[in-house]
């Protein structure tokens, strides 16, 4: 999952960036509203953390421009303003959630996870596909209850596919959502990650759709299970 962080306070931005990266997200940072507006309008993000008090263009103006242009990733407003009128104004501008400074990083991460789940119609904290389970909070993947060791990029690929059950996801889309903007992207490595995931998961949940990409779906029930049902 790829996150846009728009925050002008450099120390706080570095702390949030480190926490998001540590949680497995690819993160782009903008230090002012103008850069934030352009990045959000041009790049595909799974969620945005947006400060209100930004130089160049304030956060509410950035948000209103995105929504007017049908740029609709879930947005968490982050601000030192804590009055109920500011909260109402932010929500009315198109924000999905609101977090006032100071805050704990654990709460920020929990709110980001919830925003992404809701955006994909997945209210449960644990994602599931057949025997495969993925807990975004702990970063643990399991098959039939047994933990599976994944590298950071394998986790990112599986996480994105688990949020798109049944949908065909191209290599280009996967590349855009698991790497930050400044990363040296290579869509061919997606095939490597998919191959590793198939070996590690040991079940046929990732389908290759020739010429289009990959699709995550539960394996069919075994004949024995069908006969018993």
UniProtKB/TrEMBL annotation:
The keyword DNA-binding applies. Keywords: DNA-binding, Phosphoprotein. The keyword Phosphoprotein applies. Pfam families: Response_reg, Trans_reg_C. SMART domains: REC, Trans_reg_C. It comes from the Bacteria. Residues 2-116 form the Response regulatory domain. Residues 124-218 bind DNA. Residues 124-218 form the OmpR/PhoB-type domain. The modification 4-aspartylphosphate is found at residue 51. InterPro entries: CheY-like_superfamily, OmpR/PhoB-type_DNA-bd, Sig_transdc_resp-reg_C-effctor, Sig_transdc_resp-reg_receiver, WalR-like, WH-like_DNA-bd_sf. This is Response regulator transcription factor. It comes from Cupriavidus basilensis.
């Amino acid at each position: 999952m790829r996150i846009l962080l728009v925050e002008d306070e450099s120390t706080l931005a570095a702390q949030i960036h480190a926490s998001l990266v540590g949680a497995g997200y690819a993160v782009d940072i903008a230090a002012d509203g103008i850069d934030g507006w352009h990045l959000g309008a041009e790049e595909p993000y799974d969620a945005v953390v947006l400060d209100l008090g930004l130089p160049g263009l304030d956060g509410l103006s950035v948000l209103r421009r995105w929504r007017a242009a049908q740029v609709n990733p879930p947005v968490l407003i982050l601000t030192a303003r804590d009055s109920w009128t500011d909260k109402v104004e932010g929500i009315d501008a198109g924000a999905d959630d609101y977090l006032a400074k100071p805050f704990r990083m654990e709460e920020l991460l929990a709110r980001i996870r919830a925003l992404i789940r809701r955006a994909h119609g997945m209210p449960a904290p644990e994602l599931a596909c057949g025997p495969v389970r993925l807990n975004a909070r702990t970063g643990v993947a399991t098959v039939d209850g047994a933990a599976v060791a994944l590298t950071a990029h394998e986790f990112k690929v599986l996480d994105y596919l688990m949020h798109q059950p049944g949908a065909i996801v191209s290599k280009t889309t996967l590349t855009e959502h698991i790497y930050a903007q400044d990363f040296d992207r290579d869509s061919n490595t997606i095939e490597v990650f998919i191959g590793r995931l198939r070996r590690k998961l040991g079940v046929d949940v990732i389908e290759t759709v020739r010429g289009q990409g990959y699709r995550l779906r539960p394996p069919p029930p075994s004949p024995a299970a069908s006969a018993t049902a």
